[in-house]
Every structure is written in structure tokens, then in C-alpha cells.
Amino acid sequence: MKQDNRYGSLAAWVYDLDKPIGHSFGDIAFYHDRLRDCRGPILEPAVGNGRVFIPLLEQGLAMVGFDASEDMLARCRAHCRQRGLSAALSRQRFQDFYYAEPFAAIMVPAGSFQLLDFEQARITLQRFYQHLHPGGVLLLDLDAMGELIQDVSGLRSWPAGEDELLTLTASPPELDYLAQQSRTLLRYEHWVAGRLVLSELERFSLRWWGIQELSLLLEQLGFVDVRVYGDYRAEPPRPGCRLITLEARRPA
Ligand SMILES: C[S@@+](CC[C@H](N)C(=O)[O-])C[C@H]1O[C@@H](n2cnc3c(N)ncnc32)[C@H](O)[C@@H]1O
Q1: How far apart are CA 93 and CA 249, in angstroms?
Q2: Whole domain around residue 166: which residue ranges?
Q3: Cα(237)–Cα(224) distance, rounded to whole angstroms?
Q4: pLDDT digits over 66-107, tens only?
Q5: Are residues 142 and 42 in the same domain?
Q6: Euclidean distance between the first and final Cα of the chain, in Å?
Q7: 169 and 59 in one domain?
Q8: Residue located nearest, by CA, to atom 27 of ligand 1
Q9: pLDDT tens digit string along 111-126?
Q10: Do β-strands 103-108 and 154-161 pair in parallel, antiparallel, or remain unpaired?
Q11: Would the CB of 21 count as within 6 Å of ligand 1?
Q12: Which atom of ligand 1 is nearest to the CA of 71?
């Protein structure tokens, strides 16, 4: 098994049950607040099941999304259909996505950027830059390092229908301090009437970033006006804050 962070059929199902459309960590209101005056389309890479994308679309923002996982996209498309929304969604990856028209903003909530290793992240930031209008804004979330290295191994479960259960068993994280990555094995299982009907194993890796490290990289790639917010408040992070948002602009 080569690929990390695959988000296959059971992972997508669990994501949908655990983080349904509109489920907010404070991010939906924060992103809406910062982006509501955008003139032009807004891109959400790694759109997932549409947890944030769909509420923003419903609030009138011109959202466009892509995701590498067909299973996640299928869920997002189905949620849009159920709500009578037409959405511009495609299967693409951070590292090589392409659109002919630039965006007024690009937003990456839920720490999805941390699914990339350093080199993939660098290439992705270059693509973000190329896909922004002059003056366009990038907003990107990072989970604080403490969140990534803590051991959340064990079993979780979600009821999924009449006598049906989904379970997720996570291994303790393996920490690579050189690459700044935590790696976990995730075993997803689907049980019907106590019998195992499907099992999927995923290798999950997340990279932790220093705030200054990422700010410097953004500046090196040409971004300007880099700002940092904590816990979805319009103010700098305070000690102990768990979620960091970086904002940066392509020069006007
Ligand atoms: C934590 S979910 C975030 C979903 C959504 N943005 C949200 O805020 O709820 C991460 C998403 O990243 C997608 N993903 C993982 N690697 C990717 C890659 N290389 N390119 C694009 N999407 C990727 C996964 O398929 C998954 O849908």
C-alpha cells in the first residue's frame, strides 16, 4: 500500500457521519466573514464531503471545489443534489490541479494542507499563487503540533443504520521528527448484524508546521501581507491555541 491519506469508501462514510454538512469548528463563520466580500470565485481544494463548501455555497459565495478522493467527491455531489445545488466539483490533487481562470480566494480549512509532505506543500503553494488573481487571498488552517503528536489511538464507532456499525481503530502515531510528520494506521470496518462485511486499511500522515516556517515559505514564493489568526478569531494566536489560520495575498 503506497498511497497515504487515500480517504476510501469507509473513510468517506465515517467522515460524513462524524463531520456532516454544516458541522463547524468555528471555521464556517470565520471563512464566511473573511470571504463574503470577495469578487470572483473561491476555490476550496480538498473539499471533502462539502462540510464547509455547501454552507458557503448556500450563503451565496461562488464556490468551486476539488478533491483527490472519488469517494469523498461522490458524497459531496450527493449532498449538493439533495439540496438542489449545482456545484463545480472535480477530481484533482493539490500537487497538480489546474483551472484556466484564476480565483479571488483559495481556502483550505480543517488542516488538509497538513496531509502534504514538505515538497508537495511547496509545489501546492506555487499552484495556489498561480491560481490567484493579483490581490487574491489564500486562507489556510494548521492544527497546532500538540494536536498532531498526541496519542488518540483506540476504537471509535458510529451507528450507520439498522443493526449496522462503522468502526475505526487507530494505531498510536509514529513520529518522524526529521520530516515533521506523524503517521498512523487507520483500520475502518463495516459491520452488519455483528458480521464484518468490509474492512479498509489506510495509512494516514500529517505534517506539522512552524508558523514562522510557513510564513517564510509563503513570502519566498511571492505572497505578501502574511497574517496569522488563532482559533478562528480575527486576532493573533494566543499561547495554547489549537488552530492557526494563515492568510496571505498575491500582490495586487
Ligand atoms: C480533513 S478532509 C477535509 C474536508 C473538507 N475540506 C472539510 O473542511 O471538512 C481532507 C480531504 O483532503 C482530501 N485529500 C487528501 N489528499 C489530497 C490531495 N493530495 N489532493 C487533494 N485532496 C486531497 C481527502 O480526500 C479529504 O477529502
Answers
A1: 22
A2: 154-206
A3: 19
A4: 999 999 999 999 999 999 999 999 999 999 999 999 999 999
A5: yes
A6: 44
A7: no
A8: 48
A9: 999 999 999 999 999 9
A10: unpaired
A11: no
A12: 25
